[in-house]
Amino acid sequence: MSKVERVTFVKSELLDIFMSMNVAEHERRSRTAAQRNLRARRGIELHNEFKQLERDIADLADDERH
């Protein structure tokens, strides 16, 4: 293998490694974003559930007074 072929091979290997790292980083960021979105959505759902529960309790208290 000539020096030019070795340099070309090493460049190709480095490019493959770099691309693999980019793919792995993109996948990690996507998973992190999905987890963050899921936590935010669940937080909103919990907030809405608590608000509904507060309204239901208030309605029960109103019914007991009448």
List the helices and strands and how they pair.
Layout: H1 3-65
Give structural notes.
With 66 residues, the protein is mainly α. The protein has one domain (1-66). It is 95% helix and 0% strand. It has one helix spanning 3-65. The chain is rod-shaped, with a radius of gyration of 28 Å. InterPro entries: PA3496-like.
Strand content is: under 5%
The helical percent reads over 70%
Mean pLDDT: 93
Radius of gyration: 28 Å
Number of helices: 1
Structural shape = rod-shaped
Order of helices and strands: H
Structural class: mainly alpha
Number of strands: 0
Largest sheet: none
**Number of domains in the coordinates?**
1
* Residue runs with pLDDT of under 50 for 5 or more positions: none
End-to-end gap: 95 Å
In short:
With 66 residues, the protein is mainly alpha-helical. It is built from one helix and no strands. The mean pLDDT is 93.
Features:
mainly alpha; 95% helix; PA3496-like
